[in-house]
Task: structure prediction
Amino acid sequence: MHGIYAASTGFSVQFFPESAVLGCGPDAARAYPYTVEVDGTKAVVKINAPDHPLSLAFSSGGTLDPGATGPYQVHGRTVTGQNENDDFTFAPLEQTCNLAVLAPSTTIPSGGGSAGTMVASAAPAGAANGVHPSATAGGGAAPLSTPNAPTGPAVLSVSSGFPAQGGAPNPLAGRPYILLRDSYADVLAKGGVSVPAGVSPYKYAGNACGNKTPDCQKISEAIRAEAASAVRADASGSGTFPGVAPGVYYLMISTRYNNQGLVWGQAVQLKPGTNSVTLAVGNATPVN
Result:
């Protein structure tokens, strides 16, 4: 199956040939294997989420019916860095949306759901499509720009410059795109994290979270505090950030391509109106 199905509650399912990405709002998402089976006279999509499997029955009009209306928790994640094996490490982001009938859609829902608690952990990059820090920055942090509450008129559209590879998913599909107010290294330093000289901040963060050191929680909190806006890429690797105030920002984007970890953390000057950037191998930084 291909394409996005979404409900008015913010719950969504984005289908790829090898997985179904369950989403709650624009931020939390996770991929699971799925099958399409015939149950009596109906075709049913069965999503193999270990702790809460989901069955979606095809209904008239091309919709998908979960057969329930209660809350459903999506176990999303945000990238915190990379470990010594170049695997990306994540901090979980829990988000809950109510189940409802899903209709075909061209976009991921821009709102919906309620946030849960974030706890540091680590996982290989292929384990899930992660998402960005918390949608509600706490403490004295500046507000995060969202589709329903943009913080300014400068809009950044990001697209993928990776070539199509025989039906394989775009390496940026479903990835979290985060816009930071400062560089990743400076964000960690402002959060009280001391990265040794000559060490990649992504590597250091990955090792910290992989080993569950106290710095992992500091890293997660620092990213939340300095996130200006965020969006999840669609199947083509495209995404548009909600508007922010004009100025200089820094990308926080990562993926793996041809067994190589890649990050984009460069500064972008955003002017009022529409701005754009294309991500490709040529403007990425390999993480070794």
Residues 196 and 211 are 16 Å apart (CA to CA). The longest helix spans residues 214-226.
